[in-house]
Amino acid sequence: MGKGGNQDEGATELEAPMPTFRWEEIQKHNLRTDKWLVIDRKVYNITKWSSRHPGGQRVIGHYAGEDATDAFLAFHRNLDFVRKFMKPLLIGELAPEEPSQDRGKNSQITEDFRALRKTAEDMNLFKSNQLFFLLHLAHIIAMESIAWFTLFYFGNGWIPTIITAFVLATSQAQAGWLQHDYGHLSVYKKSMWNHIVHKFVIGHLKGASANWWNHRHFQHHAKPNIFHKDPDVNMLHVFVLGEWQPIEYGKKKLKYLPYNHQHEYFFLIGPPLLIPLYFQYQIIMTMIVRKYWVDLAWAISYYTRFFITYIPFYGVLGSILFLNFIRFLESHWFVWVTQMNHIVMEIDREPYRDWFSSQVRAASAGCRGAPRSPGPCPQERGCPIGPALSCPSLGLPVSFHWEGQGRAGESGWELLEGPVGNRGRAVRPREGWALQKGEGSLCASASSHSPPFSPTAGSHLQCGAVLLQ
């Protein structure tokens, strides 16, 4: 997690029994000046050390006073290496009678999800296809070349200019998805190579900052759609989101804009201005203020290449306008692909849910080809929980159940005959059973239980996928 910790901040493991703590005590240490967290039932004091956390002090600070085991597993590739730096921060462990989960979180979901993740790892589903990412990069460079050749061959008339702008906007959008996967360290085994290629793609191909993106996006995945923790739901008083924020604004009589018309002015502000105005300004200011000189050098290389390429066709002012028109087109693409999948999900204050449920409620969607969204298909590739690992379309051995009162011991789903590839068997609802949408949220987990949990006819679906053995 970092380059060591202060000896006075935590105690190394000694032969004598470690101090034990109850959750009531741990939860008190959730302040900016006093941070404890729990990983694998071990208690760590990260108060002073968090400022040196390579992922940033905010993302780790969001878990102060909580169990951070699943977040720790999701964000770090080489766990054995990271644990070496955690020993000086260790101050004790949970008392034996204390549950592993804090604040009444559903331990069964957590256990099931970890079992599902282990199954996915055993099936090598986290192993990336190097050729795919190489071809992805190649087709981005190819589009950049096609854009230049279009102007070189056909001239800078309106039609070639518009075609070139759409080609470049497409390449920019694709570079955005590609840098996302490298930024999540999900391509190469070694983090170093992921970081290097990430800086090249987001810096030289897009003119943005890897550190800026990491700072925002890691917080988003750590606490998705949580006010004051997820930067992606900070609308700068332009929009109000969720159910809590409009009420809070009403109580405080905050009315920077006519929020009752935000569904109308969203189309004038959100899609067209997010990237060319807000992101572009914030990225440049962040690199300068925070002294991200390496990122700034990569960004300068992008702008240098762009203007050298297009000033001969449009001049200085024309090239600046052309660049912002490309950003304008890309912004529409980006907003509709990302924000439309997130801001319609649950947005609230910190609910202290388990890792899996928090991801499903905030950044997921239904599985294509599966009845009534039976399980999470996160629409962000490289998402820490593992993209779409519970979808029947991937052939994972999953089934779904109803929870509550009903015909005990009987699953609402049944296996179809025959394997799906070599990964498992497909499922379908039993006759007379139907998925219903109720107050509960749809989620999926893995379990060693066989048969699945008890179903409930006419109840809402809650925690659905269980691993079949």
From TrEMBL:
PROSITE patterns registered for this protein in UniProt: CYTOCHROME_B5_2
Gene Ontology CC annotations of this record: endoplasmic reticulum membrane
Primary residence: endoplasmic reticulum
Top-tier EC class: oxidoreductase
One example of a Gene Ontology biological process annotation: unsaturated fatty acid biosynthetic process
EC number(s) recorded for this UniProt protein: 1.14.19.3
CDD domains, alphabetized: Delta6-FADS-like
Record keyword Lipid metabolism present: yes
Name of a matching Pfam family: FA_desaturase
Membrane topology: Multi-pass membrane protein
Catalytic activity field: (11Z,14Z,17Z)-eicosatrienoyl-CoA + 2 Fe(II)-[cytochrome b5] + O2 + 2 H(+) = (8Z,11Z,14Z,17Z)-eicosatetraenoyl-CoA + 2 Fe(III)-[cytochrome b5] + 2 H2O; (11Z,14Z)-eicosadienoyl-CoA + 2 Fe(II)-[cytochrome b5] + O2 + 2 H(+) = (8Z,11Z,14Z)-eicosatrienoyl-CoA + 2 Fe(III)-[cytochrome b5] + 2 H2O; (9Z,12Z)-octadecadienoyl-CoA + 2 Fe(II)-[cytochrome b5] + O2 + 2 H(+) = (6Z,9Z,12Z)-octadecatrienoyl-CoA + 2 Fe(III)-[cytochrome b5] + 2 H2O; (9Z,12Z,15Z)-octadecatrienoyl-CoA + 2 Fe(II)-[cytochrome b5] + O2 + 2 H(+) = (6Z,9Z,12Z,15Z)-octadecatetraenoyl-CoA + 2 Fe(III)-[cytochrome b5] + 2 H2O
Pathway where it operates: Lipid metabolism; polyunsaturated fatty acid biosynthesis
GO molecular function, one term: acyl-CoA 6-desaturase activity
Protein known as: Acyl-CoA 6-desaturase
Organism listed in the record: Bos indicus x Bos taurus (Hybrid cattle)
